[in-house]
């Protein structure tokens, strides 16, 4: 049987990094999706092709969980990075269906820039688990897909992950995550604009950096707590639909993330370009180190300004995605 599922990427309104240490965060799903098609094979091998990695995509085929040598058509480090998430997602599906030896053909198509703070890893894993379990005839509810996808991010990011990205991608809309407490929120449609510098990061490495800083310096531990306080204020502003206040808090959040060492010159440049053009607020989104910023831009001037900013490779509006993981095939 063949199954296709898609899941959205996300921007963080508030709270990335601090959420790893139990503070609350509010990510919002956006209309940029990863689509994964999975077919069961007659053997225990795994064949993965992806049309949205750097280079021109890749295909890899290798033996199942006993780890045969991959036969790849592009350089290995890229594949290793990519296969960490896909491999672990397939393992979750095998476990959920009680089929440890199931083999699959997996095809990934994604319009979420990779490693840029928009949650491509979570979207690929959420859509992958959903499609692979359905290919084995098992239907999981979105919360279970989210929990299994979290286990994958936790494993691949070397024991350092929150449930925020995966819960948001599975459920869609705006969500609030604080440790194991994951809820969906009623949120107004916000005028998100994204600026992307064209670079990518490794989330695991950036999270490790913040962890080290937090252990070594009291100011960093205090900064993580301050982000939590700010998120609680942000929740009130969100409930009131107060875009001015949300923007102000996003600006503060960016400053606190800078203090944790996860901003970059390109991100600061895009943040200031958006603010100078009249954005209500702007901050980096996701792990940082390069990648994307998100701004609130009611009149569209920040979108125009980002398009003219050297170092901003792409800018686009990002509508809130109300659907989380969803089935894309009829059978
Ligand atoms: N289209 C894709 N095909 C295969 N793997 C992907 C794809 N998109 C993302 N990934 C996986 O997700 C990783 C990026 O995740 P991460 O570093 O958490 O950044 P982000 O989640 O912000 O995009 C990639 O290195 C790759 O392993
Ligand atoms: C930094 C962090 O809070 C978010 C990472 O998001 P992304 O992978 O950069 O899209 C890590 C996490 O919550 O697991
Ligand atoms: Mg990620």
UniProtKB/TrEMBL annotation:
Residues 236-302 form the GHMP kinase C-terminal domain. Pathway: Isoprenoid biosynthesis; isopentenyl diphosphate biosynthesis via mevalonate pathway; isopentenyl diphosphate from (R)-mevalonate: step 1/3. Its EC number is 2.7.1.36. One of its GO terms (biological process) is galactose metabolic process. HAMAP family: Mevalonate_kinase (MF_00217). Belongs to the GHMP kinase family. Mevalonate kinase subfamily. This is Mevalonate kinase. The lineage of its organism: Archaea, Methanobacteriati, Methanobacteriota, Stenosarchaea group, Halobacteria.
């Amino acid at each position: 049987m063949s199954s296709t599922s898609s899941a959205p990427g996300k921007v963080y309104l508030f709270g990335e990094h601090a959420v790893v240490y139990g503070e609350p965060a509010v990510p919002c799903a956006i209309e940029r999706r990863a689509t994964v098609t999975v077919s069961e094979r007659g053997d225990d091998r795994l064949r993965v092709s992806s049309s949205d990695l750097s280079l021109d995509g890749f295909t890899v085929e290798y033996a199942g969980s006993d780890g045969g040598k991959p036969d790849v058509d592009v350089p290995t480090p890229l594949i290793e990075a990519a296969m960490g998430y896909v491999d672990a997602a397939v393992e979750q599906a095998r476990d959920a269906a009680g089929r440890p030896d199931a083999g699959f053909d997996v095809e990934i198509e994604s319009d979420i820039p990779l490693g840029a703070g928009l949650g491509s890893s979570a979207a690929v894993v959420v859509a992958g688990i959903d499609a692979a379990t359905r290919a084995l005839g098992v239907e999981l509810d979105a919360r279970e897909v989210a929990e299994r996808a979290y286990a994958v991010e936790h494993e691949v990011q070397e024991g350092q992950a929150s449930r925020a990205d995966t819960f948001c991608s599975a459920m869609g809309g705006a969500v609030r995550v604080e440790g194991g407490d994951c809820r969906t929120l009623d949120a107004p449609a916000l005028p998100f604009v994204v600026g992307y510098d064209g670079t990518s990061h490794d989330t695991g490495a950036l999270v490790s950096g913040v962890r080290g800083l937090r252990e070594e310096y009291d100011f960093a531990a205090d900064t993580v707590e301050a982000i939590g306080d700010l998120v609680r204020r942000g929740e009130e502003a969100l409930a009131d639909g107060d875009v001015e206040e949300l923007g102000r808090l996003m600006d503060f959040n960016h400053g606190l993330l800078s203090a944790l060492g996860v901003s970059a010159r390109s991100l600061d440049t895009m943040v200031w370009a958006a603010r100078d053009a009249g954005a209500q607020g702007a901050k980096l989104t996701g792990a940082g180190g390069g990648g994307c910023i998100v701004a609130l831009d009611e009149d569209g001037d920040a979108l125009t300004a980002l398009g003219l900013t050297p170092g901003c490779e792409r800018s686009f509006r990002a509508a809130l995605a109300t659907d989380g993981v969803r089935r894309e095939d009829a059978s």
